[in-house]
Specification:
alpha/beta, GST_Omega/GSH, Glutaredoxin, Glutathione S-transferase family protein, Glutathione S-transferase Yfyf (Class Pi), Chain A, domain 2, 315 residues, two-stranded parallel ribbon
Amino acid sequence: MAPGQFVQETSSTGEWKRQGNRFTGRISRDSAAAPGEGPDAQGRWPVEPGRYRLVVSLACPWAHRSIIVRRLLGLEDVISLAVVDPVRDERGWRFTLDPEDRDPVLGIAYLSEAYLRTDPTYDGRVTVPAIVDTTTGEVVTNDYPQITLDLSTEWTEFHRADAPQLIPADRAEMDALIEEIYRDVNNGVYRCGFATSQEAYDAAYDALFARLDVLEDRLKDRTYLLGDTFREVDIRLFTTLVRFDAVYHGHFKCNRQKLTEFPNLWAYARRLYQLPGFGETVDFDQIKRHYYVTHHSINPTGIVPKGPDPLAWIR
């Protein structure tokens, strides 16, 4: 990533403001489009096994959510997976982990090629996760909050028999938690790390740790955020927590305390890590190389720290 990559997302007061999602198509079982067609007049693409490709980075917490949900629901043979190199260059996410440096299904070297095929005028930051239609090579969606919800609600016909119910019947409490956690924690660590003024950093830091304190207290008498069953909101918090000590504590200056110094949050995060679909999808090497190598303005030397010890997650 070039040092100036986030200039368009930095306000005049030094606060980092995440760009909106450009592609917000939905893959829906209510689509009026026939197989191979799409989208319909309402922008809904048909649910069609084998048609769509989920492009992710193992380093990215937003993409990590979709990897976990896809695995938990048993959709591995229904929606294919493409993994980009954790280290981006000036053209963004690249398929250099694949033979001949091209995605074998989409035939492209950079995810930006799919973005520009869909919108030749696009000049924003290319993000993962993104779902790409393999029949046209166009991006269906990069709307990461909606992607995982739709995997739960629109692809039910193809869920494995014992798939978890990630969205409760009454969503009000979960949706409120999702919003608070996104604002102060998921996005809050980035607002700390990419702040360009002391005031903006201080505000983000205070909000982050105030929310973590609330969550620490919430978990003192329950297994997961909503009780005895993990839900979508737990997945969204987990992908930030699993990166906290390895990246956010030092690299993003979120250093009031480590995750390991929150007794309840640390026990909760390790509990999730040791469940099928969670820890097995974590790649600390790719996580650290992405953040420490690509954020030149924050870590100009590009040195990647050796710690912390990942075995702490399974002890």
